[in-house]
Amino acid sequence: MLDIKNLQSRIGGTEILRGLSLHVDAGEIHAIMGPNGSGKSTLAQVVAGHQDHEVTGGSVTFKGVDLLELEPEERAREGIFLGFQYPVEIPGVNNAYLLKAALNARRKHQGLDEIDAFEFLKLAKEKMAMLGMDPKFLNRGVNEGFSGGEKKRNEILQMAILEPELAILDETDSGLDIDALKAVAEGVNSLRDPDRAIILVTHYQRLLDYIEPDFVHVLSAGRIIKSGDKSLAFELEEKGYDWVREAANG
Amino acid sequence: MMRLPTDKLQAIVDRLPTTRDEDWKYTDLSRAREITSRWLDAGGATVAAEIAEDIARITASIDADWFVIANGELRLPDEIPNVTAARVNAAPTAENALAELNTALLLDGLRVRIDGTPAKPVGILLIDGAADAATSQSYVDVEFAAHSSGELIEYHVSLGATDHYANGVVRIAVGDNASARHVRIQDRDLNHVQTGITHVSVGRDAKFSSAGFDLGGGLVRNDILIDIANPGADISFDGLYLAGDGQHIDNHTRVDHRVGPAISRQEYRGILNGKCRCVWNGKAIVHEGADGTDADQANHNLLLSEKAEIDAKPELEIYTDDVKCSHGTTVGQLDETSLFYLRTRGLDQGHATRVLMHAFAAGLVSRIPVEAAKATVGELVEARLAVLINTDEDFS
């Protein structure tokens, strides 16, 4: 589904990704772990198409399409979803408006009719119930005055409604207390699907107690230096990142 | 009231501010002078156009107890509980040529006193529609009695293709422990001229919340003067101006903190597209001894065209030590992170841009202190914005 080969990127003249390769198939959950500054968030942003990152080498294909040629909105319509580490607050724009506009953009791309107001409301309420969200959040400004946990849950709601084929969740666990973390993890788990791949970008192993990954990758200085199954995450928790770094250098 | 002879009136017109005055350096009142002189030459009488339907439409759009001043003539409504109203024919002493002109040519002034908590907002519709080029004056004096809690809507409209110049004076006095919520809507024809001075004074522990919306007008100058002479005042006011080709909108604000503690906050936002010019000049003066003053002013502008021009100037004068003052001015583009966020949700660049511009304006609509006016102001803002940024999208 997603094929990243020897990806290199720069931001403001600083090299961040230095030859990163990753292959993700439908139905899989991958965890990308690594210390601060290793390039985890950059990877998420480059795949989503953030213009500040200049790709200087390598390739990214999604379902055989060259992703690097596409605008961020085209990538979204193709089925890529980026869950933000810091979801943006947009006072004055209803949550419902954004959800509907996003869904219709995707549907139009798929050759489907726009969803009508009644069907949309039904769908949104159903997904909110699944995530344990109060329907009143639909009529509030996008993330306006939401707590950290509410913002992250709202990201998962967008994901649930858009039904992406590939979801990249950037530090979805950061800043959450244990209850909020559990709620978000439950939401993500409910979206596990044989046709959907999920990439979890995280600093801590904690999230992986609740969302079990099929693969764990350790990122350091812009490259994946070690890959394994979920036991790698436990090993990291025990021994710290220096352990893999040393192992990789030695 | 006997009107002054035409040559005396013309002498006042000749004394109206010019761009040589520091406070008027960006705003040229030549058109106001020209329209008024032409109107005086033609006899200084206004032939009203048919505006009954517009009055009915506007007063029906917001649930309020309405006073209508049409072409300068006041119609007093039936009695309203907790609201005392009277016609006044003389505005108090004039302090500059604009106020002098107002006093000299005023037909009907309106004085309103609000006691207790009226059931509905007091709405004042100042509407002009003349068959020929004309000048109109308005004077409104609203007192919120001590301990009252009330709402005031000022709705300024002028219609028709003929030249029009409206000059208004508003005085708002908020009594001790009173809470006043105020909204000003200016929706004039895009060729008309307006000057307006609003004086606000506040009593001890009084609260004044206000929002102004300049949606129309070819040449508009608003002066908002707020005087804090009693401790405990809490003042906040917002302003939104939407300007397109040929428009000039100038907002001058001045807050005098004479005593503390007191809070004043203002936030003006503007969206400019096409060849137009806007001015925001926000002055806060913290006088000697006004300890415990907390003054904040902000002005944010979105310029969508290279031909659009904004002159934004915050001015702080502080003559005491124990104060907290801040100001921020931005002129620029939309937030890149927000744009990226919307695009990752599948909205194309154009759509995402329109959504954020809508949000920029709607942020102030959602804060309108007069709940009854929110929906209508929201629609007016949306309609004007749709023309400015050329879209017919419904963002609800």
Describe this structure in words.
- Chain A is an alpha/beta fold and 250 residues long.
- In chain A, 36% of the residues lie in helices and 28% in strands.
- In chain A, the strands form three sheets. Chain A has a six-stranded mixed β-sheet, with helices on both faces. Chain A has a four-stranded antiparallel β-sheet with strand order 2-1-4-5, covered by helices on one side.
- In chain A, helix 5 packs parallel to helix 6.
- Chain A starts with a strand and ends with a helix.
- By secondary structure, chain B is an alpha/beta fold.
- Chain B has two domains: 6-333, no CATH class; 334-396, no CATH class.
- Chain B contains seven helices and 19 strands.
- Chain B has helices spanning 6-14, 30-41, 52-61, 97-105, 336-343, 349-365, 371-388, and strands spanning 65-70, 73-75, 83-88, 109-114, 122-129, 134-144, 149-159, 164-174, 179-186, 193-202, 207-214, 219-228, 234-243, 248-257, 262-272, 276-286, 293-303, 308-318, 323-332.
- In chain B, helix 5 crosses helix 6.
- The A-B interface holds A 48-51, 71-73, 75-77, 81-82, 84, 87-88, 90-94, 97-98, 101-102, 105-106, 109, 141, 158, 162 and B 335, 337-338, 340-349, 351-352, 355-356, 358-363, 365-366, 395-396.
